[in-house]
Structure formats: structure tokens, C-alpha cells
Write a structure and sequence with these properties.
Elements lengths: L4 E4 L2 E3 L2 H14 L7 E5 L2 E7 L4 H8 L2 E11 L5 E6 L2 E9 L4 H10 L9 E4 L4
Parallel strand pairs: 1-5, 2-5, 3-7
Antiparallel strand pairs: 1-8, 3-4, 4-5, 6-7
Length: about 130
């Protein structure tokens, strides 16, 4: 079941190069192995950073309300792999089609019309 409400506390639209370089930067800083992957739907690649599951966050989830600390996104065509130059080396970021996740579909619909604001955003799912 989709969440009733998804609240975005911070949204950042980035240029394509900046978005993919930030993905590689996070992998490098965290010393993670492997190839990073980000979801992609209908021309939008994005990264969702949730809040940790504190008692307050879990309480909200049980009420059907999902809170994302931050969503970063860029508009880009689909390619299974994007090549990124970072730190003098070429890196790869995989794009994963995520149309089967209704929450992400609603999120991307919102992101495609995103206008920067200083107010947190709540996306209410349409009634079925």
C-alpha cells in the first residue's frame, strides 16, 4: 500500500554532473565497495535520504506518514550506467528503473513540477 502522506523536509534539484558526482562522493567518503545505484523514473534520477527510525518516526509511519529528510534529483535520460569523472578517475553509477514503486511514482510526479520553497512539502496520495 502506498503511504497516505509523504513529507519532504528538503528537496534539491541538481545538474546532471553535480548529481552523479555527489553520489560518487558519498560512496568515496563512506568507503563503500561496489557500484552505487539510484532509482530512475520517467526522466528523473533521484536519491532519497530517510530519517532514522526513532520512536517518533516509527509512530508517524504507523499512521501512514512517511518523512524523508532530503531528496536530491536530476532530470536525465535513462542509461543502465552513467560514467562519472571524480577524483581523476572514471566511476560508474547504475540507474535502476523504479516504476513499480507507487510511492516513487508519486514522488517523481511532484519532482517534475518542483519549484524551490522554504516550506516543507507534503505529498498526499490520491484516493484510490
Amino acid at each position: 500500500m502506498p503511504w497516505e502522506d509523504i513529507t519532504l523536509h528538503e528537496v534539491r534539484e541538481l545538474g546532471v554532473s553535480e548529481f552523479f558526482q555527489s553520489i560518487i562522493e558519498q560512496v568515496e567518503v563512506q568507503k563503500q565497495a561496489g557500484t552505487p545505484a539510484v532509482p530512475w523514473i520517467d526522466g528523473v534520477a533521484f536519491l532519497v535520504i530517510p530519517f532514522p527510525d526513532t520512536p517518533e518516526v516509527i509512530s508517524e509511519k504507523l499512521k501512514g506518514n512517511l518523512h524523508f529528510a532530503m531528496v536530491a534529483f536530476t532530470q536525465t535520460s535513462f542509461q543502465p550506467e552513467k560514467k562519472v569523472q571524480y577524483g581523476g578517475r572514471e566511476h560508474t553509477v547504475r540507474l535502476v528503473k523504479a516504476e513499480n514503486n507507487p510511492n516513487f511514482v508519486y514522488l517523481v510526479e511532484y519532482l517534475k513540477t518542483f519549484k524551490p520553497t522554504t516550506v516543507k512539502t507534503k505529498i498526499t496520495q490520491p484516493s484510490s
